[in-house]
What we know:
The chain is α+β, with helices and mostly antiparallel strands. Helix content is 36%, strand content 26%. It has helices spanning 5-21, 32-37, 55-62, 92-102, 122-131, 152-159, 190-200, 219-232; strands at 43-47, 68-75, 81-89, 106-107, 110-111, 113-116, 140-144, 165-172, 179-187, 204-205, 208-209, 211-215. The strands form four sheets. The protein has a four-stranded antiparallel beta sheet, sandwiched between helices.
Amino acid sequence: MASSATEKVQESASAAYSAVTGGGAGGAGFSDQQREAQTPKASIYVGNLYFDVKERDLQQAFEKCGPIESVRLILDNRGLSKGFGYINFTDNDSAARAIRDMNQQPLEGRRLTVQYAAARGGPSADRNRLRNTASEPSRTLFIGNMAFDMSDRELNQLFREIRNVIDVRVAIDRRTGQPRGFAHADFTDMESAKEAMAVLAGKEVCGRPLRVDYSQSTGRAASMQAGSAQSGS
């Protein structure tokens, strides 16, 4: 009889922890946090989110895994996302399926960290996971906290002195047709993206400081990277 999604995720977690800690299949050498991370439950932690991702975005991304009871983003005292949140499914199998299918999958260019929610230690324990998920440098930048009414002229001025930009894509809400407050910019090479980050990070535009991070290469940057790999093979 085939194992359920919950059993498969639990077996994978046990094997991974055993390899790292030297513990046996029975859990010898596991810390309390490690045991908690592989304990099946209906609640999952989702980290490494862009700060502009909304609860409805998580709902849409994860509803294919099973019926969802609630989605909650963790906010700071200003009402801004801290970059992680929780999804409660109606059953353990749906949560296990979400971990199996969505962990390390891209959402808005960043690879998600999806694990069972930590009951012991609460959000502080999950924040420790988030600190270990810094984005690696790439040819694409995410630019967040942009003013929703930012004009094309203001966007052009923002990138006027930035070198080697090949494409800038402003995210649009599919339902309303309005800007979502963030964009992705592709560069010809990684060094140019690093230079742009140094210039743009924290820059104030329309009274709002930009949030800038590396993103998974998409669009023209991804096409150029793929072409370079093929030509070098």
